[in-house]
Amino acid sequence: MRFVLKVVDNLGATKVMCIQALKWKGARLGDTIVASVKEAHPNGKVKEGKVVYGVVVLAAMRN
Predict the structure, then answer these.
(1) Three-state SS for 35?
(2) From its phi and psi, is residue 30 left (phi > 0), alpha (psi between -120 and 50) or beta?
(3) What is the largest CA-CA distance in the chain?
(4) Cys staple from 18: which of 1, 27, 28, 54, with CB 3.0 to 4.6 Å?
(5) Nearest Cα to 56, choosing from 22, 26, 23, 33?
(6) Per the confidence metrics, is the pTM higher than 0.90?
(7) Model confidence over 16-62: pLDDT tens digits?
(8) Which residues lie across from 21 on neighbouring strands?
(9) Whose CA is closest to 33, among 2, 55, 11, 50?
(10) CATH number of the domain that 11 lies in?
(11) Is residue 63 part of a domain?
């Protein structure tokens, strides 16, 4: 996996790196992923380096 994603949440994380998709062949819309927080707001609830779960809600394809 190892791709960096932008995050929109209320916990304070801004960028996460995907560690693993919880399905066999990658993540699509609505799938759950396991990710590591790479950037976070200083006053947020999560800190850099914490492992979190997330749901994919927006995806874009390259042409």
Answers:
(1) strand
(2) left
(3) 38
(4) 1
(5) 33
(6) no
(7) 999 999 987 888 889 999 999 999 999 999 999 999 999 988 887 76
(8) 33
(9) 55
(10) 2.40.150.20
(11) no
